[in-house]
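tool_log.txt
---
The assistant was asked to compare two proteins side by side. It first ran the structure predictor on the initial sequence, then on the second. Raw inputs and outputs are pasted verbatim so the downstream comparison step can read them without reformatting.
(1)
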Amino acid sequence: MATGTAGTTARDLNMQVKHTIARTLAYNTAGAATGVVVGAIPAGAIVTCWNVHVTTAFNAGTTNPIAIGTTGTGADVAAAASITSATAGAYSSANVAAAGARGALPSDTTIYVSYIPTGTAATTGAAVVVVEYAFIG
């Protein structure tokens, strides 16, 4: 995909619009316990908000934490406590990222989502994860 920046895979439309990266996550998504890539955000971008749309409730026996971060199991964009993944519905930040991801990103940054349940294994669960960001190139 053309990004407007040579040698990078971070998404930049080169327009004054809000950008998004998104992916689906299910209870059985391969690699979810160590984090799966949502997408890459270019250096200088500011994460403005995140949204998680739980389309099917996750049903692990004890906890069903979904976290969004700049590392595989990080939660610096969205802490697991912010997302009630055991209940279908839409969850979002109050138009800001968590403290660890505030401000302009110093370099191209990969965003991950993780699901690390406890208790009996989940047999259902699906969500769409969306991270919004602004970029002034």
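(2)
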Amino acid sequence: LSIVVPYRNREEHLAQFIPFMEEILLNAKEYTAEIVIVEQTDDKPFNRAKLLNIGYAESKDSDYFCFHDVDMLPLNPDYSPVEAPTHLAAEVEQFNWGLAYEGYFGGVTMFDKESFEKINGYANEYWGWGAEDDDVLSRCLIMGIGVFRKPGRYRSLAHGRAIDNELYNKNLQKLHNFKVKPSPESIMRDGLSTLKY
């Protein structure tokens, strides 16, 4: 298992996340794991999706992957192997121990290698906050890949959230355009196949 963590300027969270996860992973009996921190060091808007693709590309030898936000600490984790895309952050403290919204597929999501390759990973062109996890869910559905949710309870680490509304609206428009004319061809135009870093 590779746990891929997109990261920038959250030293406090990382200092809590690493030892918390190491304790869980060291006690795992059904799998071995590594934590891959993918840090964005430029001054461009944060690009979570691209960082997740980079983490995948840098740890391709793993059998399966968990794309994991640094501000979510698992309280009852199940990181055992999956054979299809599986959402774990079903009960999140910051969302009153529920989902952010119906169809939420972000925060902590696991993928088997075959499914992630088939959907061409995440789209690289979501800058700033929002919509990349909705896009990846749509990719799964378009490519005929079933998605699942395991029960999972996550404590939220507090942080300020400055959302650039202009970028957020661009992300929503990109997602809308993608959903209007969904096709396998459109999926191949942005993702692992076009990843540069």
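---
observation on (2): The chain has a mean pLDDT of 94. The chain is about 35% helix and 20% strand.
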